[in-house]
Amino acid sequence: MTTSPIPSHQPHPNHDRGLEFDLSTLLSRRRTLGVLLGAGTAAALAACTPGTGTDGGASATPSGAASASTTAASPSAAASPTVTRAFAECGVEFPKETAGPFPGDGSNGPNALEASGVVRRDITSSFGTSTTKAGGVLLTVTLTLLDGSTKNGANGCAPLAGAAVYAWHCDREGRYSMYEPGVENENYLRGVQEADANGQLSFTTIFPGAYNGRWPHIHFEVFESMSNATKAGQLLAVSQIALTEAACKDVYASAGYETSARNFPRTTLKSDSVFRDDGGIYQLATMSGSASAGYAATLNVTV
Q1: Region annotation Disordered: residue ranges (predicted)?
Q2: What range defines the domain where residue 148 resides?
């Protein structure tokens, strides 16, 4: 998609005002909101490299984008040694965060979750009446969901197989589809995936832009099942993924990210309204790749 330059993204008056603000909105739609989120230690975050089987590629290349369909591994898929280590090392509570003003989950207007086509791995394009594709550097995001209720000493956490994640983020110009001027009729960069037998799932997307007031990030919600996700049902967790400084600097030097290159230096992890409490240490993805070849981001999420 070719887009013309737009002025620097201005912070929305309700943009990421905090968890308390969002919960008051979310609870009106979801009678039970159990936000029980945790994550692996910093070592576990570094250790969680996705397996090399179906849907779990550790590297991202522009030619390797998956089709827009659900491609979860079979229940018999074997966990890689690093995924097994992630199960054993989980334990640090993952911070609860705001869903922001642009969730598209029905809590404040638009609802992508009940739309046909939202269940897909490749979220770069809109679905439904539009097929517009968001331009930008390729990014593969892989999450490993762990069941914190099964923790048992050295045995760690079991994979949260069958859970579902709804992920969304802004485009390279800092705009959120379904809400903001110019992209209000698009629904790209939003999608749902189901965790496989190892609790793992992946999204193929583009590297989000940087806008005033926020560190580059990806929003996500965890549901106990695919059925709950597509019906906007019981929510287990709400949080955000922080992207690394080195990757952001590399990507924002690329064509198309000029607005992000100007905005990025204005906010640090320590000054960010969401990540400032701990500098995003537990939400910072492990990243590999380059702007030319594409990036891969991985993270452990204990629910």
Answers
A1: 53-78
A2: 32-302
